[in-house]
Design brief:
The protein has 133 residues and is mainly beta. The chain has 1 helix and 7 strands; from the N terminus they run H-E-E-E-E-E-E-E. It has one helix at 8-20, and strands spanning 24-28, 57-58, 63-67, 70-74, 79-93, 101-119, 131-132. The two termini are 24 Å apart.
């Protein structure tokens, strides 16, 4: 008897594909009004400032783990060292030809760094990671 479900191998493989695609995270100002309909990375309302390059930061430490909720994608939290920037949110996206958006994060308020580190704390396993399927 077959059980109606999505195969674990597909779910894990979909998240592993994201890791192999070397995703990036870009920072945005409080003028960005994006939601789940955002299709891809955009330079509109992207942060400008010392220590920040357009396109953002390549995510590191990608790993897929199995949790009670399914398979969860985790990355190390990105840090821009010696940055002078102000950001309200971030967009994680695939750094490929399509630059498809993966996850949007609203910081809840403007975060500022002046000639210091700027860190985006990505959700950990307990918080569902970047994606759980």
């Amino acid at each position: 008897k077959l059980k109606d479900c999505v195969a674990d191998s597909f779910r894990r493989g979909a998240l592993e594909h994201i890791v192999k695609s070397r995703p990036k995270v870009a920072l945005y100002t409080n003028l960005a009004q994006y939601d789940q309909s955002l299709e891809k990375y955009t330079t509109e309302n992207e942060v400008r400032g010392d220590g920040y390059q357009p396109g953002g930061y390549q995510l590191e430490g990608g790993v897929v783990i199995e949790t009670a909720q399914g398979f969860t994608l985790l990355f190390h939290s990105p840090v821009w060292q010696n940055a002078t920037i102000k950001a309200r949110g971030a967009v994680l996206y695939l750094a490929d030809d399509a630059n498809r958006a993966i996850r949007l994060i609203d910081f809840g308020k403007d975060i500022v760094s002046t000639a210091g580190p700027f860190t985006v704390k990505l959700p950990g396993a307990a918080d569902g990671g970047v994606i759980t399927i």
